[in-house]
Amino acid sequence: MTQRGRVPVVVVMGVSGSGKSTVGRLLADRLGVPFAEADDLHPAANRAKMAAGRPLDDRDRMPWLHALADWLRQAEASGGGVMACSALKRHYRDLFRRAAPDVWFLSLVLDEETADRRVAGRKGHFMPARLVGSQYRALEPLEPGEPGRTLDATAEPHALADEAAAALRPAPG
């Protein structure tokens, strides 16, 4: 919870295959707030580009990031929410913080080989495993001063959601 005692808006971030969606849904359930999958808000052109094995650039991402920022703003105004989103770069997260000042980031980290294996094992997703490396090249980890926590994405998803929920609870006293 934030200092004001409200459930914050949480962005569960990381590369493809880190478990953002799974952990995000679990965390939203624990917090009793809505969940959003950022991939669902990608324009068709972005999905097609990734499905063709071409990584997105910032120009591709900007309309999508603004749509996500709008969702975060609305979630913060209505009592909280959890979104699964790669949020790879600091300036993306800065955009989110401008939209929803109380946003908190849960960064799920894992090695590239594990991410490759997880993504290759998914069925019916537009993101091919061959693009995982481009996400690692773009990834800017949470920096000091960014509100949130970094956790090992190889841990069990329920344990990750529990740890995140505990971190969001106000300190006693």
TrEMBL record:
The keyword Transferase applies. InterPro entries: P-loop_NTPase, Therm_gnt_kin. The keyword Nucleotide-binding applies. SUPFAM superfamilies: P-loop containing nucleoside triphosphate hydrolases. It holds the Pfam family AAA_33. Keywords: ATP-binding, Gluconate utilization, Kinase, Nucleotide-binding, Transferase. One of its GO terms (biological process) is D-gluconate metabolic process. GO terms for cellular component: cytoplasm. Its EC number is 2.7.1.12. GO terms for molecular function: ATP binding; gluconokinase activity. Pathway: Carbohydrate acid metabolism. It is an enzyme of class 2 (transferase). Transmembrane segments: none annotated. It catalyses: D-gluconate + ATP = 6-phospho-D-gluconate + ADP + H(+). NCBIfam families: therm_gnt_kin. PANTHER family: GLUCONOKINASE-RELATED. Belongs to the gluconokinase GntK/GntV family. This is Gluconokinase. It comes from Actinacidiphila bryophytorum. The lineage of its organism: Bacteria, Bacillati, Actinomycetota, Actinomycetes, Kitasatosporales.
